[in-house]
Amino acid sequence: MAPAVSDDALAEFADVVLRIGREVDPHGPHAPDIVPLTGTEALVMRWVHRNPGASPSAVADATALQRSNCSVALRSLVAKGMVERRTDPDDARTVQLHPTSRANGSIERLHAHWAGRLRAALAGDEEGLAAAATLLARIDDGLRRRD
């Protein structure tokens, strides 16, 4: 039995996702006023922002980064004023990571940038956006489970 979706269709889908990613890239020609981050820093920052209070080990595991690479990114994010290390109130030997107000402001501007770019591209025709977001989240989850 042939697959329901051809390899060519899947490859084209991936290419479209990459093209969209380049268009909403915060370092591109329409860059918002945000703190510049490397790809690894952005990956770590995204996780800390969505999971405040996570430990450095949990961040490394969740992002599939080697602990040394995660540590380098965290040190840089702390130096940029984006992440704050706090002692776990239940275990003084453990560190918790939290986004700072600077990080929250930068992320807010980034999200506004993304929303504006996508809203303009859709020109008011946002039908199907929720279904597309659900599909992309399923793909993201499926890719992470396989890695």
UniProtKB/TrEMBL annotation:
It comes from Curtobacterium citri. PROSITE patterns: HTH_MARR_2 (PS50995). This is MarR family transcriptional regulator. Gene3D superfamilies: Winged helix-like DNA-binding domain superfamily/Winged helix DNA-binding domain (1.10.10.10). It comes from the Bacteria. Residues 10-141 form the HTH marR-type domain. Pfam families: MarR_2. PANTHER family: TRANSCRIPTIONAL REGULATOR, MARR FAMILY (PTHR33164), TRANSCRIPTIONAL REGULATORY PROTEIN (PTHR33164:SF104).
